[in-house]
Design goal:
Length: 72
C-alpha cells in the first residue's frame, strides 16, 4: 500500500508461445510462463509454470492432463 513503492519502475517478464498453440477463453497466463508447441490450454486455466509440448493442460494451477495423440 506504500505509494512510493508503487511508483518505482516495473520490469515485466516475457511470456513465450510455441507454434500451433490454442488457449481457451478466460485463461490466465502469469509472467514468465512458456507454452511449448502444439499445446492446448483449457478455458479458465491459470498458468503459473511452463507447459510442455503436445499436451492438453488445464486447471488451477494449470497442469498437463494428457498427451495429444498424432492426428488428434
Amino acid at each position: 500500500m506504500n505509494a512510493a513503492l508503487r511508483q518505482k519502475p516495473k520490469f515485466a517478464k516475457s511470456t513465450e508461445f510455441g507454434s500451433d498453440v490454442w488457449v481457451g477463453g478466460g485463461a490466465i497466463i502469469c509472467p514468465g510462463v512458456t507454452i511449448r508447441s502444439r499445446t492446448v490450454i483449457g478455458a479458465g486455466s491459470v498458468m503459473t509454470r511452463d507447459v510442455p509440448e503436445v499436451v492438453f493442460a488445464a486447471g488451477n494451477p494449470c497442469r498437463a492432463i494428457r498427451e495429444i495423440a498424432e492426428g488428434e
